[in-house]
């Protein structure tokens, strides 16, 4: 080695290679854990109403959803899990697009102790509107989906079994 700069470069290259190898081993070892999460979403009430938004001048149909959520996601946590991102999705066929998914509620779970919960009477977090502007004659299923965010490695997605299809009601007239 000819200079201190070349020695520093060699050491940093070796250190980076070792760290990359360790991260790959950690990511590979998390695939050895088997997970059997359970979750259920039970819709209590759905209301469809007309409203105007600040960016549209025409009335659009929005959906309000009340639901109960029960989940045991503790098996998704292992020593490489940083946190879980969970969200409730309404899936329905559309007139303009073949399949549509709308996130109506979400939460971040940062520990295994909080991964088992029962939450009655939840409401949607976001305004829920169809891209075509109408909810008429739509059958929607609701399911809990999750994203496992590891310390190192690839993200893992999963989903609970959806509800039976629910016919969305017509909007209430004012």
UniProtKB/TrEMBL annotation:
Family: Belongs to the SPCS3 family.
InterPro entries: SPC3
PANTHER family the UniProt entry points to: MICROSOMAL SIGNAL PEPTIDASE 23 KD SUBUNIT SPC22/23, SIGNAL PEPTIDASE COMPLEX SUBUNIT 3
Role of this protein: Essential component of the signal peptidase complex (SPC) which catalyzes the cleavage of N-terminal signal sequences from nascent proteins as they are translocated into the lumen of the endoplasmic reticulum. Essential for the SPC catalytic activity, possibly by stabilizing and positioning the active center of the complex close to the lumenal surface. Essential for viability.
Protein name: Signal peptidase subunit 3
Organism domain of life: Eukaryota
Keywords: Endoplasmic reticulum, Membrane, Signal-anchor, Transmembrane, Transmembrane helix
Any one GO CC term of the record: signal peptidase complex
TM regions (residue ranges): none
